[in-house]
Amino acid sequence: MRRNPETGETSPPRDPKPTFGSADVAAAWSGRPSAARPLVVRGELAGAPFTILMREEALTASWGERLVVACDRAGRLYSFWRAGHTYRRGLNGRVLHKCQDEAGRHWEWLDEAGAEVLVDEAAALFRRLHDTVKAGPVRFIAHPEPTPLDRVVCLAALELGARFTAAAARADAARFARVYAPIGILPPDQYLALVVQGTIGCSFDTCTFCDLFGQRYRVKTPLEFAKHVEDVRAYLGPSLSLRRRSIFFGSANALAVPIARLVEHFDILVRELDAKTRGVGAFVDGFTGLRKTTADFLMLAKRGLRRVYIGLESGHDPLLAFVRKPATARQAIETVRAAKAAGVSVGVIVMIGLGGDRFADAHVADTITAVNAMALGPTDVLYFSELVEIPGTPYPVLAAHEGLRALSPAECREQRRRIREGLRFVGAPPKITSYDIREFVY
Ligand code: SF4
User: Number of structural domains, the chain?
Assistant: First the structure.
């Protein structure tokens, strides 16, 4: 109760000033009786039509021909589209700008100021849509029929998006950094997974083309990991509904951890995140993976492990040695076989263009042999990942020193075609797809 110092009277406390992500507004969306039921709202803003689509995991608003913005259920902006330019915001606050022209696809990270302008622009649009829906008239479309509660929920969701201003986004990114170590990369089918980090960094950190996990490698204790899982859940809150596809147990080579400790970590995932139902993915490298037996993989599979991702990169051992990858093709093949024998599917990553012109023919021939020896099937995935020469990594310097010529885009396409042509599968083939590390945002 508040007390008036002059009259001595007391009155109920004022409603706390709403802030981004506050429980009251989030609860209106979360508490929607049939959250899985999509809701569409149509209306007009400043002479242009708008459409709001509310799904269980996110709200997408399009306005005229100009803008499409999307936020998750906590109001966190994650996608912004304007006139052929796509912007993806990661939870770490960075915004990736993607576009395409005659020269091909382009990617660039916005600087901090550019990211803040974009976030504020999205928040302002959500605010204007909120006020327009509140004032009416707008049309609600849902099956079964819309109810008065739909309007309340829509306004609550727009309110969350409107509160996610640059200042709120900055604070949110700082909170993310307290909960997570940098998330270097994920396999493409895990971009919408719930990431939890049982380890930090990469246990090897030697590959000359890679700068993805620059941190000192460390394995969390079960106590630390349980606390991390709790923090992740608290941080994401309603945003979890967008990242529910599966669980990704990170970071790089997370399965390098001794099996006894891994089992403890997976038990936490089963208990706290329903890992058996949702399924778990993780990276493993050929070298460490070799130390996991089929029995080890079975223990993890019983606790939800569904797919392991292994960076074969190349089947040509001299090329692996050249890029200081701590594995041989044989070790990768045996790791894949051990995982598959335990019923765990695999995602195998092959790099295109690695080793330039010097290694090209041997890379193609030995990679075909290695992948064919893995006996991949329909539950597996084969990724072709074109080499991206990252400034500051040793690879470009070593390649130049050795006189390697980088393959042109056309030569890369041809290399991929040649590898694909040489692959033979006994039954149904695995899914074969691209893995472009420049697309990654979490
Ligand atoms: S093992 Fe993987 S994450 Fe580690 S340095 Fe090599 S490519 Fe990078």
Answer: 2
